[in-house]
Amino acid sequence: MSQATYDTQISPEGRMEVLSKAEVGRLLDSSHGGLYQLFRNCALAVLNCGSGLDDGKELLERYKNFEINIIQRERGIKLDVKGAPASAFVDGVMIKGIQEHLFAVLRDILFINAEIAQGAKFDLSHSEGITDAVFHILRNANLLRPQVSPNLVVCWGGHSISGTEYDYTKQVGYQLGLRGLDICTGCGPGAMKGPMKGATIGHAKQRTGHGRYIGLTEPGIIAAEAPNPIVNDLVIMPDIEKRLEAFVRVGHAVIVFPGGAGTAEEILYLLGILLHPENAGLPFPLIFTGPEGAVDYFRQIDQFIGDTIGAEAQKRYKIIVNDPVQVAREVEAGIREVRAFRKAHGDAYYYNWMLKIDSEFQHPFEPTHANMHNLALHKNQPAHMLAANLRRAFSGVVAGNVKDQGIRAIEKHGHFELRGDPAIMDSMDTLLTAFIAQHRMKLPGKAYVPCYRILKSG
């Protein structure tokens, strides 16, 4: 069945509107070299916003004729777009927010290639070099704002959630917006979109004309979680690990709504970091919340955390059910503590330099069949290291569920095999089985076939 598409040409506004001939030349060279396919795939994902599709492989196959090229002009550039999804247009004109996102994709992919991947400025083999690289990517995107009091709330949660859960995320976002708090999410649908929609109403009622709706994504996941047009600051990070680090470096509090394997990955990432001894006294507000029907979900998450990384991890978060006002008040109080701590220690409000992130949480994990099979899923290691390996396991499940490369690997080689201590694997199996039963692995209307197999060490 053919898909409705449009052709158009668009011009940038702001930073990329005025470019030197040398800059335009580099853009042209990059667009027709090794970066073109990456740029094309990310651009297509941005244009596919609102389609209800969460399968990277299916998206690329559905729009095989899509093209995006750079046209050089004396006063800058234009993007020539052919075969773009019709959902990105209103009456034949591209939605403004989506147009901005296309140039954000171009900006970040080119900067990361020139400054991070190809340049010698950053030593990505060391923790400090990775943290510095994340900082420079965010600064290049104009995301870091000095002299602004802490007010950024990171919201995590699933793209495949129920209507009741989605409405609840909007209610929480509304209460945050009324209190002048800005929102940062993974920028996709579901629990990533709801808080932004709610906050826009709260900001409007308070006449807050500068509300920020930040979306952080990466090339592997962008097709499954296309940025929603509310996002007014979009940043494409190079990989999932740098995306996760960006969340915890720029955010001043984290709210977790119900979700699936990707949300479990985010929870384990943050708890693993907070369990590091050097972060023991560092305030970091973390709240799990959902509507009344989410009680069982958070009980399962809490049980899994207790079974695997222990009671100390359970002390680092609060669970609040069906009370958006209380969530917003807790976040606001927690951010006041963050502000006081950073002021006392001379840490920046806009980037959490003091947070210690072990290199095990920073180096990219490639979810191959061999790497998944060899993960150390046992308790004979520090709790924060077990959290790092559990995070990798859930990252692999996400890849097998929605990422183009992961889906193709499963089709070719069969299930990922996860092996570890019986108690840990039983708990993981229980949690993942619950995600499947609650339709949290794929968007509604699609039958889910597991991409993994749980095994137990003898």
Automatic annotation (TrEMBL):
<feature type="domain" description="Pyrimidine/purine nucleotide 5'-monophosphate nucleosidase N-terminal">
    <location>
        <begin position="8"/>
        <end position="116"/>
    </location>
</feature>
<dbReference type="InterPro" id="IPR021826">
    <property type="entry name" value="PpnN_C"/>
</dbReference>
<dbReference type="InterPro" id="IPR031100">
    <property type="entry name" value="LOG_fam"/>
</dbReference>
<dbReference type="Pfam" id="PF03641">
    <property type="entry name" value="Lysine_decarbox"/>
</dbReference>
<dbReference type="InterPro" id="IPR049788">
    <property type="entry name" value="PpnN"/>
</dbReference>
<dbReference type="Pfam" id="PF14793">
    <property type="entry name" value="DUF4478"/>
</dbReference>
<dbReference type="Pfam" id="PF11892">
    <property type="entry name" value="PpnN_C"/>
</dbReference>
<dbReference type="InterPro" id="IPR037153">
    <property type="entry name" value="PpnN-like_sf"/>
</dbReference>
<protein>
    <recommendedName>
        <fullName>AMP nucleosidase</fullName>
        <ecNumber>3.2.2.4</ecNumber>
    </recommendedName>
</protein>
<dbReference type="InterPro" id="IPR052341">
    <property type="entry name" value="LOG_family_nucleotidases"/>
</dbReference>
<dbReference type="InterPro" id="IPR027820">
    <property type="entry name" value="PpnN_N"/>
</dbReference>
<feature type="domain" description="Pyrimidine/purine nucleotide 5'-monophosphate nucleosidase C-terminal">
    <location>
        <begin position="335"/>
        <end position="454"/>
    </location>
</feature>
